[in-house]
Description:
A: Aldehyde Dehydrogenase, Chain A, domain 1, 16 helices, globular
Amino acid sequence: MADEQGFDLDYAPAPESTGIVELADEYGLYIGGEFVEARSGRTFDTISPSTEERLATVSEAGAEDVDRAVAAARTAFEDHWRDTPGTVRARYLYRIARQLQERSREFAVLETMDGGKPIRESRDVDLPLVAAHFFHHAGWADKLEYAFPNRRVAPHGVAGQVIPWNFPMLMAAWKLAPALACGNTVVLKPAETTPLTALLLAEVLNDVGLPPGVVNVVTGAGETGAALVEHPGVDKLAFTGSTEVGKRIQRSAAVRRLPLTLELGGKAANVVFEDAALDQAVEGVVQGIWFNQGHVCCAGSRLLVQESIAGDFVERLHARMARLRVGDPLDKNTDVGAINSAEHLARITALVESGVEEGAVLHQSACDLPDRGFWFAPTVFTEVQQSHRIAREEVFGPVLAVQTFRTPEEAVEKANNTPYGLSAGIWTEKGSKVHWMAERLRAGVVWANTFNRFDPASPFGGYKESGFGREGGLTGLGAYVRDAGGVSR
Amino acid sequence: MTRTAYAPVPTTPVDEVALEARAAELCSRSIKTTSKRAALHLAIRCMDLTTLEGVDTPGKVSSLCRKAIRPDATDPSVPSVAAVCVYPEMVAHAAATVAGTGVAVASVAGAFPSGLSDLDVRCDDIRSAVVDGADEIDIVLNRSAFLAGDLARVHDEVAASKEACGDAHLKVILEAGELGGYEPIRRASMLAMAAGADFIKTSTGKIPKAATHATALCMAEAIREFAQREGRSVGFKAAGGIRSAKQAWHYLVLMGETLGTGWLTPDRFRLGASSLLNDVLLQLAKLDHGRYGGPDYVTVD
């Protein structure tokens, strides 16, 4: 602790107050504009991963509940929403965006309580982006004929959307905003470990007067998700999550010829050339792998650094890693928060053990981890070979695998040599090299001299086992319309 | 110290967007309670309390020196500042006033703030300030030569100035706002350090583009690299436009998290400012009494 005598980097606690969040003890499902008890009769607890304390009890939607939610969405679609003018849909989206801005701190605190991510990120990244997504898509709602010129488009109908636990609100925004802008109605299933912000969002939807049934939220785990995905009343599916579940969903959608977008795992390479702005590249690598504890599908979990600077660069990275502040996610100075669940912590631990067994060299920051909650120290592996599991499999945690390359050709080959293809990073001060690399990297998003930056105008999505379809931008909007046929206007 | 010969200085590239993003991130650190008090005390201990006006008089300088020695007459726990910073003409007077108190005298010299006069004249200026009692000399880098690409000349002039300083510490002002970007700032930093600067300093305070946290980060990264490469720890001084205590503690955060706590001492870190001290005192009083007193509750010197 800093005392009267000296100022050091052991900053006094600066906790964000949780007083702004009013948690209910129990939450029902949000169906047809009302919070209702699950007919399944089942509930589950959602806990804070940083304290393991129960936050609330949440209904678990069974098949009958999902059926009700889809029916409510169908009724809203056919009764009015598909015929609601774009200008009116835009008005709702603008209202949602403004409400989310006004209640941004409340949402950020709840996101951090339920998910474990640092308040600095939920406050400065997640919630501003959430509002931006609603604003962006509000702008499109009455301009679809300009978005899709020479086509006559119509909404699909009822969209079934299943989202993950790493960016609960942001993923809800990515899914809901384009769906509503294009005139679809939605049944949204948040992840079982992070259902609370989606339920708070449902309150906002009621507050802004969004008609009942346009958006429905069904909470639950894999079984609930499967019920939604398999439901015959769903016209369009969107899923963000693991590649394993994504494949199951694709099989199911393929049989029914349902339009589907999948945003799955990743094993992105951050490629650092010897002519890069090295200190900023270090920051980019840090941002790439330790942002949100590495619970990021597009995380830069592989560092490919040019051999000529590898020693120097890794030294800079170690020094920076040592300064990461790990701990209470509600403390405003925390850089790395809690791992989302005990189950996920076990998975990270097992993969890291495999890295050690396979001969990679482990470096971890010497931070004091809290006694309660789920934690994993920021980790770097050097001497990683392409054949190691930590270089092949998605860890989805704060674990970086460092490899070297000699030439740009080798960098491309190694970066692309993965079943995934979601994102990649290039660090060089030479513009021509950026373009040469970007043309050859098989990744849906390529960042140059930055990493993990998002914008609602920029399409996001993957190649290969990272999925297909895009979210954001015009491409993302296109996933929520179909050709209506008839005469183009 | 023997004068170093010029050799081209390798400069690591700097990316503006990422640099500014990192600086902003560091400036979002929340410094509270005990940390805030410690930071405010350290900010005072690292302060070069400055007056650099054409209208400075011995009376004005006396008043400044008194404030430097005992910033808060009502609270003896508040430490003295590191130094007073004045024009050469005022050095003898300042030195006499602070003698024996532990407060150092810093003098701008070398045709401050342009640095554009004959090198011999500039070195004489330095020597005379040192003879008058200056412990520290703040000169400006020859931006004219730097922008013209004559890096050898820039280097040799700093080396000559260092020699002229004798035992006095040399701070080299880059006037970062006039160098045209972060990469030139990093290059100028490396050049000044290679030529023997004890401190590198952001600005003169005489142009509108004053010190920014991103500039400080850029220079701190150069200091870190220089220390790693050459094994010599060079100090950093931020100056120009630093008026609020919050700005000041974010400089401390930035230094500490970039260079380590070894830089959180007056030997390696300074804040050059005139009005900052009063805001720091008001913030300290607020920690004690819960109220921010306002300008009439501190002395205007």
